[in-house]
Amino acid sequence: MLIDTHCHLDAAEFDTDRDAVHAAALAAGVKQIVIPSVTVDGLNRLKICVARYPGCVAAYGIHPLYVMQANETDIATLAHWLRMENPIAVGEIGLDHFVTEIDYARQEWFFVEQLKLAKQFDLPVILHVRGAIDPILKQLRRFKLKGGIAHAFNGSRQQADEFIKLGFKLGFGGAMSYEGSTRIRELATTLPLESIVLETDAPDIPPVWLNRGRNTPAELPRMAALLAELRGLTLAEIATVTSANADSALPRLTG
Hints:
The chain is α/β, with parallel strands linked by helices. The protein has helices at residues 18-28, 43-52, 74-85, 104-120, 133-143, 157-165, 182-190, 220-231, 235-249, and strands at 2-4, 30-36, 56-60, 89-94, 125-128, 148-151, 168-172, 196-198.
């Protein structure tokens, strides 16, 4: 059985067939799906989603690409949800320096405030790290958190090693299916297997075989098979180790 450590099953892209998407994932052998929030306004929607679908669990946070529509009072609201709802992590949080039309100072303020909440509630974090790995590492060294997952990792080996030293696992998914993604494929092949977790980021980051179509959590077994091929291991070995890694990164997965 496999764990999808990052999937936005609550997204509008699944509104017409969410039941079928979830059923297909279970049938494919995906036993758990971690669903991180992106806005405070979506927290109740996410709560309903995880209550409806067996194996789904929630992380609560404000995504860095949504900070321009967030209010500073949302931090207090988020704190309330973390206190009352017992999520498995604070997420999806972080920084995104790939997109240029966002106030980076505002991004960093929301990131730091959410790191403070993770520290307060002794929770791991699910990190969005696109184009901003070094400033994220700087803040993680400052706060010394419980660990978590660097989602959709696309940094250098040196940066990967720094996350691992801080107790983080690194998320790999559809991006490693592209032959042109040489750095990601090299990392997926050579990093300690104990540092890797699997994810889809559905409906985003579709693997090459979907031809830019909508991604779903049912694609995770094929991504696991690809990782097994890259590393010269069996699918069963990949499933066992990556699931154990997810449990280690997110202890509340196992209760």
